[in-house]
Design a protein that fits this description.
There is one protein chain. Helix content is 63%, strand content 4%. It contains 20 helices and four strands. Strands 1-2 form a two-stranded antiparallel ribbon.
Length: 462
């Protein structure tokens, strides 16, 4: 296949170098965006009198046919083409002759590639936001069904204070909301058209960059032509947002893996999201969660690779930047696949409420509430803290718990203790009296669920 850039050189490249230079195996996914951008460009060229309306109409019609043929499978993308942009232009020229060669007037592959990538990622942002909302909806669904299920809350992976399972899950809801917000922010900064910047310096033709920007749904166009073709900030921003999504999914996965173990036995994953062992018939492995946890590092690598690629590049375009799409597209696909499996995995898992409660009943997680009891009866908190610490130490030595220690023993530590202390340190009371905003108390959890439902509805309408 003759190179579209043949002229200054013969266009003959060593076959190994040619394959090394090619990006068709990566950027072919952008064929729709490339055709859409070319249609807008052709329409603008006609409107500005740069090419005739007849030529523009023929180009746009032929591009529509090419799109239809690729979609239907009638036209296969040639893996020997240098990239998707050259492939489509080559097919266009084959079909309509010299008229097809007019399309590239006042356009370079530099601004064309930058345009296609922004258009493609704009579509992908919408897809990933939808998948995040699906997971958010699954989290709320499970939380609403377990608003009153008490479990131990942890710090340092040690039992700390009683909370509800709903409250714990809703912490991930907040993370997912921030993930969606970051994608929206990055998408807004990305939504400016580089088309018309050409190679780096603009063009001598009287084009309208505003016209193509509006036709393609951009908020405007990049203000500096050098920046337009060399900017990959949006790639880094999206990769960073994807990395945080994977961080959250990985943390969630780790807890699901722990909760699924015999040692915890807080949840049981549906068989559809587990696998067995090739040698141990009793095993039920949380492989989907483990894979998500493992793929987190892959997305981190995509981010670091892109940052490293960009760090020493002079302006404007350099071939190094061809590496942006492999990392960006890999991370995009990885995040999408992880989210696709995660939402139904969460929605269908069985919650073992009785095991959670049994775990919460051990470990002295109501000790803070016992200290608060003394404080509310007039004892300074630090004194109460020390007193309760001594009581816990005694319970450990006597292999008992705070709820079972007789009142007469409590009174040897302070006369402030009375019969009502047992109600005050019951797990249900400990959870129920948390009244601060955002706490594990029932009213707060109800508010969090309602707010998240409203958020999902609002984002789905955007």
């Amino acid at each position: 296949m003759e190179k579209m850039w043949a002229g200054r050189t013969a266009g003959a490249v060593n076959s190994i170098a040619d394959d090394f230079n090619s990006s068709i195996h990566i950027d072919s996914v952008m064929y729709k965006q490339d055709i859409k951008g070319s249609m807008a460009h052709a329409a603008m060229l006609s409107a500005k009198g740069i090419i005739s309306k007849e030529d523009s109409d023929l180009i746009i019609s032929a591009l529509g046919d090419i799109l239809s043929d690729i979609d239907s499978g009638r036209l296969e993308i040639n893996p020997e083409a240098e990239d998707i942009h050259m492939f489509i232009e080559s097919v266009l020229t084959e079909r309509i002759g010299d008229v097809g060669k007019r399309l590239h007037t006042s356009r370079s592959r530099n601004d064309q590639v930058a345009l296609d990538t922004r258009l493609y990622m704009r579509d992908k942002i919408s897809e990933i936001k939808r998948l995040l909302l699906d997971l958010l909806d699954a989290v709320v669904f499970v939380a609403e069904g377990h608003k009153n299920d008490i479990m131990p809350g942890y710090t340092h992976l040690q039992r700390a204070q009683p909370i509800t399972f709903a409250h714990h899950l809703l912490a991930y809801a907040e993370m997912l909301k921030r993930d969606i917000g970051r994608l929206c922010d990055a998408g807004a900064r990305m939504n400016y058209s580089p088309l018309g910047a050409c190679a780096l310096a603009g063009t001598t033709y009287p084009i309208s960059r505003a016209m193509t920007a509006e036709a393609l749904g951009f908020d405007g166009y990049c203000q500096n032509s050098i920046d337009a073709v060399s900017d990959r900030d949006y790639c880094v921003e999206l990769l960073s947002a994807f990395s945080l999504i994977m961080t959250h999914l990985s943390r969630f996965s780790e807890e699901i893996i722990l909760w699924s173990s015999w040692e915890f036995s807080f949840v049981e994953l549906d068989d559809a999201f587990t696998t067995g062992s090739s040698i141990m018939p009793q095993k039920k492995n949380s492989d989907m969660a483990e894979l998500v946890r493992g793929k987190c590092g892959r997305v981190y690598g995509d981010l670091i690779g892109t940052l490293t690629m960009l760090k020493g590049l002079p302006l404007a375009y350099n071939k190094d930047m061809q590496e942006d799409k492999e990392s960006l597209f890999d991370a995009t696909e990885t995040v999408a696949r992880c989210l696709e499996v995660f939402a139904p995995m969460v929605r269908t898992m069985k919650v073992k409420s009785e095991n959670m409660y049994a775990a919460a009943n051990r470990g002295f997680i109501n000790a803070t509430d016992l200290a608060d009891y003394l404080t509310k009866h007039g004892m300074p908190f630090r004194t109460a803290y020390k007193t309760v610490g001594e009581i816990v130490s005694r319970c450990i030595k006597e292999n008992t718990v705070l709820d079972s220690l007789p009142l007469e023993v409590y009174k040897t530590y302070s006369e402030l203790f009375d019969e009502d202390l047992y109600e005050e340190i019951s797990l249900k009371t400990c959870v129920g009296k948390r009244i601060s905003e955002g706490s594990t108390g029932p009213c707060s959890v109800d508010t969090q669920i309602e707010n998240t439902k409203n958020y999902i509805k609002q984002m789905k309408e955007v």
